[in-house]
Amino acid sequence: MEIVFEKEDVDKIVNIIKVSARTGKSGDGLIYVSDVEQRIKIRTGEKESR
User: Fold this and answer.
1) SS3 per-residue string spanning the chain
2) How far is the C-alpha of 30 from the C-alpha of 22, rounded, in Å?
3) CB-based contacts of 19, cutoff 8 Å, min separation 6
4) Do the beta carbons of residue 39 and residue 48 sit within 8 Å?
5) CA gap 37, 41 in Å, rounded
6) Quick check: 23 and 30 in contact, CB under 8 A?
7) What is the tens place of the pLDDT at every residue in 19-36?
8) I want to staple 46 with a disulfide (CB 3.0 to 4.6 A). Which of 1, 23, 32, 41 is the partner?
């Protein structure tokens, strides 16, 4: 699963995922947080920097 959202929402979204996805068993998964520096529309090639 990949989710892209605004930087100011990181803590809120990470907490929602932690609470919702936790089973308490091994293999619950990992959450990675990274910056998205650019997006490119495949169809048009249009670039947008963040």
Assistant:
1) CCCCCCHHHHHHHHHHHHHHHCCCCCCCCCCCCCCCCEEECCCCCCEEEC
2) 10
3) none
4) yes
5) 14
6) no
7) 999 999 999 999 999 999
8) 41
CB 21 within 8 A of CB 1: no
Quote the pLDDT of residue 47. 93
Q: Mean pLDDT for the chain?
A: 93
What's the residue count for the chain?
A: 50
Distance, first Cα to last Cα, the chain: 21
Residue type, 7: K
